[in-house]
Give the backbone structure.
Amino acid sequence: MKKQFLSFFGFLFLSIFIFGCGGEGRNKGDVNIYSVNQDAKLGAHWAAQVQQMMPILFDEKLMDYVNGIGQKLITTFPDRMFDYHFKIVKDPQINAFALPGGYIFVNLGLLQVVDEEAELAMVLGHESGHVVFRHGTEQLTKAQGFSCCLAIGAAAVGLGQTEVDVINLFGETGLLFYGRKAELEADRFGVEALYNANYDFSFAHTFFEKLLKIEKRQPTLMEKLLSTHPPTKDRIAQAIAETKKYTQKPNPVKSTPSFQEMKKILEKYPNKYKVSELKKQYRAYLARHEMNE
């Protein structure tokens, strides 16, 4: 028994030693017990679940357009670790989110409110920042804490978990919770991505200004939606400050004919703003899944 006890703690401390400083790439030094490869596997697993739970929009022209902007941005990343996949969710809520490993989802409602391609590029750059800094598995590390080391020693980390993990990721609001520090970090990366892809970074803060206007019109609604994010005024101030660190390259892109075509396609979709019932969809999916088992 004593030998087993010592072996257990030997494995535990070895796990902490190996995985406790798992931050790689840009977030080197941050505590993350997951490897880059595990980010990719977890992301693929959860993205498959999300695509079953959420109404994914299969409009080829819209999909190609959003993916084209995303791919343009990521080709400029100096430390690209993942393949990126961009999907559109048929949801009028103004939202976008990123899963570990490069899986990025953009709501139809967000596409309907952006006025320039550079504005959309900022949003996609922000979400890509969550992937680059590996905020998803960083957050899981914090949530799981010490016990996660034991999970690593069991089966493939994360892949044996149920779809309930996806619900936990999104929390009560139906929004991914990465924390305010992570959101500001992703915002800074978004500005950098705009600069590298030669988008007009005077639009780095304009999307946040839209959110601020909505907050003033519908404070209760936006308080719920933005409860996991820094104050919008702080995000605007930081975005403006970040742009001053760069010198705009010649002929920056503000918008394109493809963007205008995208906006015309969007006219056929309803744009009534409402709170997403994402969590309800998740629970309905889980109920069906349990019945099938």
